[in-house]
Automatic annotation (TrEMBL):
The keyword Transport applies. SMART domains: AAA (SM00382). This is ABC transporter ATP-binding protein. PANTHER family: ABC TRANSPORTER RELATED, IMPORT ATP-BINDING PROTEIN. Residues 259-283 are annotated as: Disordered. GO terms for molecular function: ATP binding. It comes from Kitasatospora paranensis. Residues 259-269 have a biased composition (Basic and acidic residues). InterPro entries: AAA+_ATPase, ABC_transporter-like_ATP-bd, ABC_transporter-like_CS, ABC_transpr_LolD-like, MacB-like_ATP-bd, P-loop_NTPase. Residues 11-248 form the ABC transporter domain.
């Protein structure tokens, strides 16, 4: 007898469309985006300002709703849930790390880490919490309050909090945006370890090519569309790819390339522009 095991991505969106506003203020922030975030993969989302990165993350995490298309956490379609179930799902199956740490100032480090479990009425898994505290290197700070910690330490608490409930996926929104490079590297190293040792799915929005280089894959958004991806990124290759957004109209990505090729064959004296070397940063 064969057993069919259905494998779901930790999170995914299918044909996602998000429109804000109406009439002249109407903005299509996501324009038919389909993407999967598998377990055991660290995915970075990059793109120019306004390209839809936060919108994609918020819709994938059930913090905002799609105009059309669907978003799933595991096999659960978020659009099928009422507000109460959606809140429960976010609490139980998603970990969040924000740029501004978002710790509760009156709680100790340990209380902050176990807060999502306490809110869910779930008993914390003691050995697991201890192991997390060990990994994030805060064993001697457990009774401290957030104000008594550096920014990097606070963000490490936030990472431990995000992992405390063994969520299906961790969404990190600019997690290193407020940190110096050393603290940022520590936080990214923690997220990397969660992927490598726990098979965690991590999805991170970032503007920083160095941060993105910690990921397994970088997805590039432009004008609400997924326009490129890069496996095994390096900071230099990501930077090159991002520079290409500054020098040409990404909406006409393919058309521009075709135009350039056609022009090159027509007139070899045509001046070189950024479009001609656009493949240099690609995977
Ligand atoms: N609540 C909102 N109401 C109206 N328009 C919005 C809203 N949120 C985002 N937008 C618009 O949707 C588009 C995508 O915004 P989004 O914040 O997702 O981009 P982003 O890539 O995360 O940008 P940034 O890098 O600057 O944070 C932008 O044009 C933005 O102005």
């Amino acid at each position: 007898m064969s057993v069919v095991v259905e494998l779901h991505a930790a999170a995914r969106v299918a044909d996602a469309v998000k429109v804000y506003g109406i009439g002249e203020t109407r903005v299509r922030a996501l324009d038919h985006v389909s993407v999967e975030f598998p377990a055991g993969r660290f995915t970075a989302i990059m793109g120019p300002s306004g390209s839809g990165k936060s919108t994609l993350m918020h819709c994938a995490a059930g913090l905002d709703t799609l105009t059309a298309g669907s978003a799933f956490i595991g096999g659960t379609e978020l659009g099928s849930l009422n507000d109460r179930r959606l809140t429960e799902l976010r609490r139980e199956r998603i970990g969040f790390v924000f740029q501004s740490f978002n710790l509760v100032p009156t709680l100790t480090v340990r209380e902050n880490i176990t807060l999502p479990l306490d809110l869910a009425g779930a008993a914390p898994d003691g050995p697991w919490i201890d192991a997390l505290i060990d990994v994030v290197g805060l064993g001697d700070r457990l009774r401290h309050r957030p104000a008594e910690l550096s920014g990097g330490q606070q963000q490490r608490v936030a990472v431990a909090r995000a992992l405390a409930g063994r969520p299906q996926v961790v969404f990190a929104d600019e997690p290193t945006g407020n940190l110096d490079s050393r603290s940022g590297a520590e936080v990214l190293g923690l997220l990397r370890r969660a992927v490598d040792t726990m098979g965690q799915a991590v999805v991170m929005v970032t503007h920083d090519p160095t941060a993105a280089a910690h990921a397994d894959e970088v997805l590039f958004l432009a004008d609400g569309r997924l326009v490129d991806s890069m496996r095994e990124p390096t900071a230099d290759r990501v930077l090159d790819r991002m520079k290409a957004f500054d020098t040409r109209d990404t909406r006409a990505d393919v058309d521009t390339r075709v135009d350039m090729e056609a022009r090159d064959t027509r007139d070899t004296r045509a001046p070189l522009t950024a479009g001609t070397d656009e493949g240099s940063g690609r995977a």
